[in-house]
Amino acid sequence: GAGVSQSPRYKVAKRGQDVALRCDPISGHVSLFWYQQALGQGPEFLTYFQNEAQLDKSGLPSDRFFAERPEGSVSTLKIQRTQQEDSAVYLCASSPRVYVGSNQPQHFGDGTRLSIL
Amino acid sequence: AQKVTQAQTEISVVEKEDVTLDCVYETRDTTYYLFWYKQPPSGELVFLIRRNSFDEQNEISGRYSWNFQKSTSSFNFTITASQVVDSAVYFCALSEANTGTASKLTFGTGTRLQVTL
Predict the structure, then answer these.
(1) What tens digit of pLDDT does each residue of A51-107 get?
(2) Which of A24, A26, A53, A92 is the most exposed place for a label (fewest CB within 10 A)?
(3) Closest to A91 (Cβ–Cβ): which among B45, B99, B108?
(4) Residues 6+ apart with CB under 8 A from B111
(5) From CA A62, how far away is CA A45, in angstroms rounded?
């Protein structure tokens, strides 16, 4: 597809279960971001990849959160031992190759709505 | 630390009215970028505009216009002759200027715009 694709669209899990959320960025996009959006709030940064390298994971709320992008394309956000406070929409965004002096806009997917019961 | 404030939580207007969405930001960076995104009910964040902190020229795109005032750290967004399709949540966001890697976005809490007939 032409845009950023995320799956599943909705995920319901019981507290304590592990979940994995997938992001397919726009083809050729070097940069990939994950954001968490709580109800009624703006998205908050979780982590950033440039190709396969995770350059910034300062926004991950705990060591239960783990992200990977092994081949520099598809990325997976994994949450272990889920808690109710993990319920949110998880947004993935990608942007093109970066040139010094520019900051390309990020293109967002529709998100995965995660509900922890 | 960067911060974006959107003081208006929700705005309701009647179609064809003009409406302005306020955005105030804080940053210690001398060079930065400002963005506006639209989030319709489908959940996807749609990029609207990016401004470089060096460029204070106001911009108009169809019914949309943006007023960047560096002196007051504001980047307001005006929709002229609003339409029902403009109903969405609008987010203002800030990032540091590119330093060779892409930069994460810091979002405000959003303004929900409701346009009725």
Answers:
(1) 999 999 999 999 999 999 999 999 999 999 999 999 999 999 998 866 555 567 889
(2) A53
(3) B45
(4) B6, B8, B9, B10, B11, B21, B22, B89, B90
(5) 13
